[in-house]
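Case study 2.
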Amino acid sequence: MRARLYFMLAFRNNSRSPNPVLVSVFDILKARGVQVEIGIAEQMLLRPEELSVSHDLYILKSHTDLWLSLAGVLHLQGARLLNPYLSCIAAQNKIMTARRLHAAGIPIPRSWVTGNLSLLNVVAARMPLVMKPFDGNRGNGVHIVNEPGELAGVPLPPRPVLVQEFVPSCREELKVAVIGTEVFATRQHCGTNGTLPQRIPCTVSAEVRRIALRCGEVCGLGLYGLDLIDGFDGPVVVDLNYFPSYKGVRDAAPLIADYIETYACADVPAARRLGDVPAAKALEGVPAAKSPVEVGVTSRQ
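Prediction:
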């Protein structure tokens, strides 16, 4: 019997349309006979003490604190998650990730942490800085400080921040997306005549490929993305995240579907697959995502 999959999706109330890559992944898996269920934690009412493992594989797409917490509940019960839960938790923390990548010899900007921004004056006098929430994403809460006087204008961060040297580049940031051992890259070009910016595929150099695969090896990720800057001394990794959007990546959906299906069935004897035994009822009857604007599919597939 085919695997039973559960996709943990993010709630985005400002989404104009569903992620077309995800919609295609769902369609491909369903066409293969895979049982696909999706859920948005923010639209559910759950009792964490009663949550139990009811699927062969949970795919953690969301980066929200709520889904990460519930993924932890399932992880403690032995659930299989993609990407692995501990890898996602570590990748979500930019401070931990910076140390891990640096220790592995992966090029990253020089970094600092502090709870007192005035202590950065001596650093800001030498170089421009980028300040990021330690668990931020989508560029939220990022501040660029060009000289010490600008530090006073930065709001006191409510949570820890990672401060990094600003790496100058004459080109647009390189968005790298990885599916297993397949590495893709895009650059975002500004739209013209009122059109939205688009990610244009570009060639992956041998150095970028080496860095990208090494990041996945070090961080224990199989579906992930990197932001790279073309520094004067070569590519520099400025951000890493698990399960990116894969926008602009040609033929991403079938590759993602292949990777997920292979991962779901790997090292799991057929007799032990949850689809062959009575499933737990933890998520049955719970309202899942129903808006096609948010996910493009119904709650149960």
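The first helix runs from residue 20 to 31.
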